[in-house]
Specification:
This protein is mainly β.
């Protein structure tokens, strides 16, 4: 009996040990849901997901929190503009706003805002103007439901708060209090920059004005929609990611700017009171977020009630410049968009006054778009306030009269392409940096009854740095309407490659955008004799790469021309839309060797050619008069570069009423310069660009005509076909003594013939 009891006791102890071992094994192999959740970071709803059962069947997870949160370490600053409607049949109001806030946790935050603008009113009633301050509680729905993640590109934020308004309408002041609710959609452009869209509903009560909707109700609804731009403050590793140290040495971070715009006195402002204004400034960044600049402005405004009715204003300011982009997101030189706050002090001057300088202050914002490490486009709205003496001198009375302006222009910051894009220097050194251009365009003068015309240009240039190029062009222009106008001149252009400065040099780039600035001079013919002409131009040059050597370009230009002497009418602005081809020539280091290469041209050196084409004669200038020309030439290439041709030309030109025809002949000798072979030797080349210059003797069948000297030049574009046959296009011009064509250009010392010749030649 005792043995059986002992045996049962052993079995029971063994069973307990097996059961305990099984429990331990199950516990080790199958952890509970709570244990599994603890393997994730606390409050990481991005990985664990949002599960409603977590909030129903067990203790809910807490909202995400910031580690080591301190007041103001998650600040955000934003500004925007909006429209408001008080009802379906009201005139919309408009307002500007500035907001400052902080996130206490990734879900909960607050903000205060300052608004100013005009309220919505019923049609036919004056606008009430207001200034407002508000405070809101914010709830980030995205972080609540999906967890906190700094790289998220979209967030949805709700807000509820209170607002106080101070209003004024027709000299009467009033007050309003209200509550408001909003829903803001944020689109994160970068880590620190975001755009926002925010519909908002405000219920307010207070002073009522004539035309305010729902005057009978205790609370008045105001529906508004705002669009704006904001920055959020980055901290720690998020801020350090992608930033660079700000090295302030020598002349680095000096910046220069110039711009133009419009300004007006904000009190009693109207469209007619707007005046032009220009500004220049120079400054330096002392840190990534703080700098100083000195600015000078000069403008004009109109005062119909004063004599004289136009006054000029000049001002000088010393501004503190706060770079909001760098202050909130860290110093990133590659940042495309930058926003600066400018606060300054200075003095203003008004002409036709006692000659005093009046002290003042200014505030403004500068939004800049980076084109390259050095160049930026900017737009700058600003407000200036001077003393009452300034207002009185400007004819605005004895009260403070703030001035508002909006300026736009370019800023240049000293930098170094070789530092910013070292990887592209080798490509630049191997590239085809010489180029030739041929283009034509419709042209339009903005003053005078010139009608529509046409412009043509032939040019030669060189890219002398990865960013900069020079170009020399021969330009011609012709207009049909009275006063008839024709011009011929030379231009010197500077071209700045925006694409290269932004992304480095790339000879295989499909599209390259450049800015163009140039000066021009030459001769112009309208009524009376031929006169000297000079001017300037600015434009853009967009080039599409067709092959290693050939580009198609489009170049819109704004030009301003002025001729001297009798019949001149001052500066004459115009527009052109040039389109043409650019041909790139040889390596940068091959110019000297190929220029002195003396080998004969490959193949046969003698040639004979025949050409025909339309012509324009200055004696009956007009697009409706059809003139024609015929050329016959024989010539020889003495070297790869140089040649000579002898030829005869026949031109026929009807007079102004087309009642008779003038026959004109020219016997001449021309020197030929193969520009493509001058730049680089290529015996297999089929396409050639050849410069032509020469002179001879001209004669005509005009009454009292005498033989006279002629000189001219042009450019021939030649393509080699098989069997020693070439085809070509040759624009050229000839200048002929007036004795050859009397009674056609009696007021000029010479006449001009412009031709566009098409032909073929045979080499033997």
């Amino acid at each position: 009996m005792e043995g059986k009891q002992m045996e049962n006791k052993i079995y029971r102890n063994l069973a307990r040990r097996v059961a305990a071992a099984a429990v331990v094994a199950v516990a080790l192999c199958a952890p509970s849901k709570a244990d599994a959740r603890m393997t994730y970071k606390l409050n990481d709803t991005v990985r664990s997901g949002f599960n409603a059962l977590d909030h129903v069947l067990q203790k809910p997870l807490g909202n995400p929190v910031f580690e080591n949160k301190r007041f103001g370490d998650h600040l955000f600053l934003s500004g925007g503009a909006g429209v408001s409607m008080g009802g379906l049949h009201t005139r919309p109001g408009a307002a500007l706003e500035l907001q400052l806030g902080d996130w206490v946790t990734p879900v909960h935050g607050w903000r205060v805002a300052f608004n100013a603008g005009a309220l919505s009113v019923q049609r036919g009633n004056p606008y009430p103007y207001f200034g407002a301050v508000s405070a809101d509680y914010l709830l980030n729905f995205t972080s609540l439901l999906r967890g906190h993640r700094s790289g998220r590109w979209f967030e949805l934020v709700g807000g509820i708060g209170a607002e106080y308004r101070r209003e004024r309408s027709e000299g009467v002041w009033g007050n309003e209090l209200g509550i408001r609710a909003s829903l803001q959609a944020r689109f994160n452009v970068s880590r620190s920059l975001y755009l926002y869209l925010e519909p908002r509903l405000t219920m307010s009560a207070g002073t009522k004005y004539r035309g305010i909707p729902d005057e009978e109700r205790r609370f008045r609804p105001d529906m508004s929609f705002y669009v704006g731009l904001g920055y959020r403050l980055l901290r720690g590793a998020e801020r350090a990611n992608g930033t660079q140290p700000f090295l302030n040495v020598d002349d680095s971070h000096l910046f220069f700017g110039a711009g133009v715009g419009a300004s007006t006195f904000l009190r009693d402002a109207s469209r007619s009171s707007l005046g032009p204004e220009a500004q220049i400034y120079v400054g330096k960044w002392f840190s990534s977020a703080a700098g100083l600049r000195i600015k000078a402005q000069f403008g004009r405004y109109k005062t119909p009630w004063l004599d004289p009715d136009r006054r000029y204003i000049a001002s000088g300011m010393l501004d503190y410049v706060w770079n909001i982009t760098n202050a909130f997101g860290g110093y990133r030189p590659s940042e495309v968009f930058n926003l600066n706050l400018n606060l300054g002090v200075g003095a203003g001057y008004v002409n036709e006054s006692s000659g005093k300088l009046y002290p003042g202050v200014e505030a403004g914002l500068t939004a800049s778009f980076r084109l390259s490490p050095n160049w930026s486009l900017y737009i700058e709205p600003q407000v200036q306030m001077f003393t009452r003496g300034f207002s009185e001198a400007a004819g605005k009375g004895r009260y403070l009269a703030p001035m508002g302006s909006v300026m736009a222009g370019l800023t240049y910051t000293i930098g170094n392409f070789y530092h910013d894009h070292p990887e592209s220097l080798g490509e630049y050194l191997k590239a085809n940096n010489y180029f030739l251009t041929l283009s034509g365009a419709p042209s339009k003068r903005l003053r005078g009854n010139y009608g529509y015309g046409a412009a043509g240009s032939v040019g030669f240039g060189k890219r002398f740095t990865p960013v900069s190029s020079w170009r020399v062009t021969a330009d011609g222009e012709i207009f049909n309407n009275s006063p008839r106008f024709v011009s011929l001149g030379l231009s010197a252009d500077y071209m700045f490659s925006i694409s290269t400065s932004m992304a480095g040099f790339n000879p295989d780039r499909l599209f390259d955008l450049s800015g163009v600035v140039g000066i021009t001079g030459g001769m112009a013919h309208t009524e009376g004799p031929v006169k000297p002409m000079f001017g300037a131009k600015v434009g853009l040059h967009g080039a599409f790469r067709l092959s290693d050597a050939l580009e198609l370009f489009i170049e819109p230009q704004f030009v301003a021309m002025k001729s001297t002497g009798v019949y001149s009418d001052g500066w004459n602005p115009g527009l052109r839309l040039m389109a043409g081809l650019a041909y790139r020539l040889g390596r940068k280091d091959s110019f000297a060797a190929d220029a002195i290469y003396k080998s004969p041209m490959e193949g046969r050196n003698n040639f004979a050619s025949l050409s025909v084409g339309p012509a324009a004669f200055s004696g009956n200038l007009g697009l409706r008069n059809i003139n024609g020309a015929l050329d016959v030439n024989v010539g020889r290439w003495f070297t790869l570069v140089s040649g000579l041709r002898l030829g005869a030309s026949y031109d026929f030109m009807p007079d102004s009423d087309a009642s008779k025809r003038l026959n004109l002949g020219i016997v001449r000798a021309d020197y030929l310069l193969n520009v493509t072979s001058l730049i680089t030797r290529d015996e297999s080349r089929r396409f050639h660009i050849i410069g032509v210059v020469g002179g001879g003797i001209a004669f005509s069948d005009a009454e009292y005509s005498k033989a006279g000297l002629t000189a001219g030049g042009g450019v021939q574009f030649r393509y080699n076909l098989p069997a020693n046959i070439d085809v070509h296009i040759e624009p050229n011009v000839s200048f002929i003594m007036n004795r050859v064509t009397p009674n056609y250009e009696s007021t000029s010392r010479f006449t001009a013939i412009g031709r566009l010749m098409f032909g073929a030649s045979y080499r033997f």
